[in-house]
Amino acid sequence: MNLQEIPKIKHVNANNFFLLCGPCAIEGEDMALRIAEKVVSITDKLEIPYVFKGSFKKANRSRVDSFTGIGDEKALKILQKVSQTFDVPTVTDIHEVSDAGLAAQYVDVLQIPAFLVRQTDLVVAAAKTGKVVNLKKGQFMSPEAMKHAVQKVKDSGNNKAWITDRGTMFGYQDMIVDFRGIPTMRGFAPTVLDVTHSLQQPNQTSGVTGGRPDMIETVARAGVVNNVDGLFIETHFDPAKAKSDGANMLHLDNLEKLLSNLVAIRKTVNNL
Fold it and tell me: Mind listing the pLDDT tens digit for each residue in 56-101?
């Protein structure tokens, strides 16, 4: 698919990677607008096609007392307000078949979580909305297996699919990115590298996922060098107080320098 098919997407002719970026979860309107304003400013300056990311609810939590959301429609309306305020497309993840039609009323891209990407009914429901479907590679799946997830979208009459690699389980509490999978998956659909989730350290005894945010630039650089079509980065102005995935998020203050470096690398790669 072409980026031009996404409403409100900008800078599509800049020959840059595109960016899915925002907080892990929508915690409130003010925080979402604050983060979006900053990222829009940066991506406009660097001519990066940008999609604002925020989960309207978090269903796959380690503990029953973990934050799951502020209310489905409330969070979806905030995503809609971000889109209207800053004239950018938005993406959110869905977890149940009934989520597809609901979320599609508010956002431009529906994301299938990695744990759920083999769930045929969920993938088909997302595809039938006509929205772009971002398929996150299961931590337990080979890159080659993702062709079947993409085919489910296409068989549902929708050619707008992306694949996102968010790392592969390496033991019980670590993730790795096998960059050999990038060209493989790009043969099936545009491929995104989820930098911050690839640095998660799940299954901690505390029930709170850990992470290695100090390695964000290392992984992101490798993705750009290996021609990923897009990058996925979760960011927050106070990761330590974020209600979800704070341990592996990038501080918002560090985003512009990171993206500037990555754009420079992409320009070099484009000239090879």
Answer: 998 876 677 778 889 999 999 999 999 999 999 999 999 999 999 9
Q: Which fold has domain 3-11+18-270?
A: TIM Barrel (3.20.20)
The beta strands (E) that lie in the chain are given as 18-22, 50-53, 90-93, 109-112, 132-136, 161-165, 168-169, 175-176, 191-194, 200-201, 210-211, 230-236, 250-251
Per domain, the residue ranges of the chain are: 3-11+18-270
Of 21, 20, 14, 45, nearest to 270 (Cα)? 14
Q: Which residue's entry shows tokens 């744990």?
A: 115
pLDDT digits (tens, 9 = 90+) for 4-29: 889 999 999 999 999 999 999 999 99
Q: What are phi and psi of 233, to 5 degrees?
A: -135, 125
Stretches in the chain below the pLDDT threshold 70: 61-62, 203-210
Q: What pLDDT does 201 receive?
A: 76
Q: Rounded CA gap, 135 and 170, in Å?
A: 21
| ∠ Cα 257 2 34 (to 5°) | 40
Q: What are the DSSP calls for 61-122, one per residue?
A: -SSTTS---S-HHHHHHHHHHHHHHHT--EEEE--SHHHHHHHHTT-SEEEE-GGGTT-HHH
Rounded to the nearest integer, the mean pLDDT of the chain is 93
Go through the chain and tell me how many residues it has: 272
Q: Would you say 123 and 149 are in contact if contact means Cβ atoms under 8 Å apart?
A: yes
At 184, which helix (H) or strand (E)?
Answer: helix 181-186
**Sole residue written with tokens 């491929």:** 191
CA 165 to chain centre: 9
Question: Structure pTM?
Answer: 0.94
| Token pair listed for 83 | 């889109």
